[in-house]
Design brief:
- The structure is a single chain.
- This protein is mainly β.
- It has one domain.
- Helix content is 0%, strand content 43%.
- Strands 3-2-1-4-5 form a five-stranded antiparallel beta sheet, with no helix packed on it.
- The chain starts with 6 loop residues before the first strand and ends in a 12-residue tail after the last strand.
Length: 88
């Protein structure tokens, strides 16, 4: 599914921090920070949102990842932001 704001659903694949033999796929949403479609092979800064309690064990600054969606890609996490999106 592609959203009108250049946001897409996808899977993020990462290896567990400190245990590279363990890996996992996470459901995620990606938003292209530049707000325009990317061309094949183009580098970009994106925001990936993952809502999963196990994500911090796999996704940290400096950790490589791959994405699977309408296009495959790979990258390195530059920073993490934690939020409490649960009901109040």
């Amino acid at each position: 599914m592609e959203y009108t704001s250049r946001t897409r659903e996808l899977l993020v694949h990462a290896r567990r921090i400190g245990q590279p033999s363990a890996d996992r796929y996470f459901s995620a949403v990606i938003c292209e920070d530049q707000g325009r479609p990317l061309r094949t092979g183009e580098r970009a800064v994106v925001t990936i949102t993952v809502v999963d309690d196990d994500a911090p064990a796999y996704l940290a600054s400096g950790q490589p990842f791959t994405i699977w969606g309408s296009r495959a890609g790979r990258g390195i996490i530059s920073r993490r932001v934690f939020t409490d999106s649960g009901p109040s």
